[in-house]
Design brief:
Chain lengths: 158, 158
DNA sequence: TGATAATTGTCGATATTCGTATTATAGTTA
DNA sequence: TAACTATAATACGAATATCGACAATTATCA
């Protein structure tokens, strides 16, 4: 009785799940009663489905701050080459740096790919010189600055 | 009377705003009455602040689906070099491709940086061969496959 | 086909949201 | 400084929504 499954294993969401996701994608605070009316089921059903999808890690209902409006104007993607035996250590250090939003292990010439957000180019320079280049094991970095976001789509259900 | 400002210009959020953001970051459906009690103000105040932050594009309350749980198991970052005069056209085509989640104009050897999500490597191959390589103006692509996400942090307020 | 578990529905108690009117606060000008 | 204005906060009752316990229904599987 450790694991409990529902209907079938994910990713098999049914129509009701999709209806719920479609609604909450737009507005995480939409009343369950409204969604229920739309989908022709009871509020209780919506409530339970949402709870399960959250428990199962399928759906998160969160508030997101626009980084630019919060003063974080400079976004960069950085590829990092690391000495093979130092990878764990480097990741650990990067993990503790607030500017680092995303760390991904990748294929290719560089092992790590990170995304950072800072207030301005001065902070970017500080990050590169005072933080990233001081991390032992980092052999090479490739900074790709973001000039403009042309598309950003976080909706997964149409 | 076209623009309306509040207190002062963003990014000057005050303590109440930060309190609201901090709470809603964790749970977008947290009752305003609860936040109000915590911050020592009225529910109406919270309601109005949230509405304003949303109107001003500072805060979004959204449902997010875990792509892996939705069957999108392969994520790739792709750098794309484009003939200078074809940039707009390429972006327009990429915009219409469902797999493409993010398009960013960048500095460096490649002009565009995109993020894609597909179900599996077969779909990635199809995307590269049937879609991306058929886009006129694309001269060179560099695919960086994501092996594992080591950190992903979307909270902007501590 | 039964037995069992999981899901959904019903419904009243409680909590939350919403809208209006009123009061307080900050900024501005005479 | 006082009066004025605009903005933001509060008070509060009505309308909605959420929650939880139990019953009914639907799947699941031996």
């Amino acid at each position: 009785m450790e694991e409990k499954f529902r209907r079938s294993l994910y990713p098999e969401l049914d129509d009701i799940d999709y209806g719920i996701v479609r609604a909450l994608q737009e507005n995480a605070r939409l009343p369950f009663t409204t969604i229920a009316k739309e989908l022709g089921v009871t509020e209780k059903t919506i409530r339970m489905r949402v709870q399960q999808m959250q428990d199962d890690g399928v759906l998160s209902l969160v508030g997101i701050v626009n980084p630019v409006k919060a003063g974080l104007n400079v976004e960069s993607f950085i590829q990092i080459a690391v000495e093979a035996d130092k990878l764990d250590d480097v990741v650990e250090v990067l993990n503790g740096i607030v500017e680092v939003r995303l760390i991904v292990l990748t294929t290719g010439d560089y092992q790590l790919f990170i995304q950072i957000l800072v207030r301005n180019y001065e902070e970017l320079a500080q990050f590169l010189m005072k933080k990233l280049n001081k991390v032992p094991g980092v052999t090479r970095v490739n900074v790709i600055n973001e000039l403009k976001i042309l598309k950003s789509k976080f909706k997964f259900v149409r």
